[in-house]
């Protein structure tokens, strides 16, 4: 589950802001239980326990199922992350490009793989040949188990403009047939053929529906990813504001006419859990791959 700093996420924050409900989450992380058993663990009445459970259910953290006359509670979420507003650097001018996830210029993928458009799958699922289907440009979500996809973005920097910082933002996650909320995958980022670093995605999420994922997409397949922001500076690379790798702007050839951006699952990756890219009209962020060149 991914949250942001908005009123839409308040039910989750409120649900977590209670020690008794935190204990319920801890209990349900081990097994599904009925209300009486949870109340016994907590040492409180079933009436109060039900109120706590309903708050957690309304926030999408737990779900209920029927077992005869019993109401069984189960944990629905494996991971919660919070996206803070992006910091602004008003002293720099910006060249910004948005690249649809279907506008890749090179690829090499292995099943499970596929492309999804606003109304249906594009071509046949698990057939890499359809990654060259002309309709791929309409894709809002693509996925593959092994290999890479590569994009190119125009380099609008002029000779008298000095690159101060480069930001790359993308919503992505792992890839598992249908989905698996706990399925780590090492996804490696490249820019202009330079390996920037590897991020381990925790899973391929379908615990809740993506905010923008079209209605035609089944509930039991990838619904959303986690937005990651790479920031490359003169003194290193940061991921979501935290130090990531020592790669700096001086390591990247910025004299080219384009910026090449690659997302890959390396053959020797410890966690080969695939990759899913979410673009405009899919996932929790209604945006394409976003490249920003901050310059002075």
Automatic annotation (TrEMBL):
This is Transcriptional regulator, ArsR family. CDD domains: HTH_ARSR. Keywords: DNA-binding, Transcription, Transcription regulation. It comes from Weissella paramesenteroides ATCC 33313. The keyword Transmembrane helix does not apply. InterPro entries: ArsR-like_HTH, HTH_ArsR_DNA-bd_dom, HTH_MetalResp_TranReg, WH-like_DNA-bd_sf, WH_DNA-bd_sf. PANTHER family: TRANSCRIPTIONAL REGULATOR, ARSR FAMILY, TRANSCRIPTIONAL REPRESSOR SDPR. The keyword DNA-binding applies. PROSITE patterns: HTH_ARSR_2 (PS50987). Residues 1-95 form the HTH arsR-type domain. GO terms for molecular function: DNA binding; DNA-binding transcription factor activity. Pfam families: HTH_5.
């Amino acid at each position: 589950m991914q949250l942001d700093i908005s009123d839409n996420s308040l039910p989750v924050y409120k649900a977590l802001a209670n020690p008794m409900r935190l204990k319920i989450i801890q209990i349900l992380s081990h097994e599904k239980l009925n209300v009486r058993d949870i109340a016994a663990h907590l040492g409180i009445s079933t009436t109060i326990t039900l109120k706590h459970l309903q708050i957690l259910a309304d926030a999408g953290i737990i779900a209920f199922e029927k077992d005869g006359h019993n109401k069984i509670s189960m944990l629905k979420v494996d991971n919660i992350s919070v996206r803070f507003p992006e910091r602004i650097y008003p002293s720099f001018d910006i060249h910004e490009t948005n690249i649809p996830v279907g506008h890749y210029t090179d690829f090499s993928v292995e099943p499970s793989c596929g492309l999804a458009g606003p109304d249906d799958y594009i071509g046949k699922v698990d057939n890499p040949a359809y990654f060259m289907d002309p309709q791929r440009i309409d894709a809002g979500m693509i996925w593959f188990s092994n290999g890479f996809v590569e994009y190119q973005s125009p380099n609008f920097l002029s000779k008298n403009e000095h690159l101060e910082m480069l930001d790359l933002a993308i919503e992505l996650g792992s890839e598992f047939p249908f989905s698996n909320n706990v399925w780590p995958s090492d996804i490696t980022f490249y820019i202009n053929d330079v390996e920037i670093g590897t991020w381990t995605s925790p899973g391929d999420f379908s615990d809740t529906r993506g905010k923008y994922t079209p209605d035609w997409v089944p509930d039991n397949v990838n619904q959303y990813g986690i937005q990651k922001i790479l920031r490359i500076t003169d003194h290193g690379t940061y991921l979501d504001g935290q130090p990531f790798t020592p790669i700096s702007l001086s390591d990247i050839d910025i004299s080219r006419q384009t910026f090449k951006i690659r997302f890959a699952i390396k053959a020797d990756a410890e966690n080969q859990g695939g990759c899913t890219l979410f673009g405009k009209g899919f996932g929790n962020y209604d945006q394409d791959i976003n490249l920003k060149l901050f310059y002075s």
